[in-house]
Specification:
By secondary structure, the chain is mainly beta. The strands form three sheets. Strands 1, 2, 4, 5, 6, 8 and 9 form a seven-stranded antiparallel β-sheet that branches. A two-stranded antiparallel ribbon has the order 3-7. The chain has a two-stranded antiparallel ribbon with strand order 10-11.
Length: 107
């Protein structure tokens, strides 16, 4: 990871995507010397100065992060999405209530 801009709660870094993909609005775990130092929110992605919604494996990109801790060149980044499973109660025809799982993605 290369650092291009580093302020208190906002960072711009450059990196290569080694596996999977990264999407705008998802999250990143930041690791320094194999120790997790925090979780950042990805607010923007750029490839050659063009705003993009996602970046695939093998591409280099710039990433804007909401992150309050210090980062250093060479730190590692692991991207992920947060998903919540909500449980809903529904009445059945016989008056009994049924618990149902519902997967909802929230960014």
């Amino acid at each position: 990871m290369k650092i291009f801009f580093d302020e208190k709660n906002f960072k711009i870094v450059g990196t290569r995507i080694n596996e999977g993909k990264v999407e705008k609005g998802t999250f990143a775990k930041i690791f320094h010397e194999d120790k997790e130092i925090g979780i950042a929110r990805i607010t923007a992605l750029k490839v050659v100065k063009e705003d993009v919604a996602e970046v695939e494996k093998g591409a280099e990109c710039g990433i804007s992060l909401e992150f309050g801790s210090r980062i250093k060149e060479g730190d590692k980044v692991e991207f992920f999405k947060k998903e919540e499973i909500l449980k809903k109660l529904q009445k059945e025809g016989n008056g009994k209530k049924k618990l149902e799982n519902s997967l909802e993605k929230r960014k």
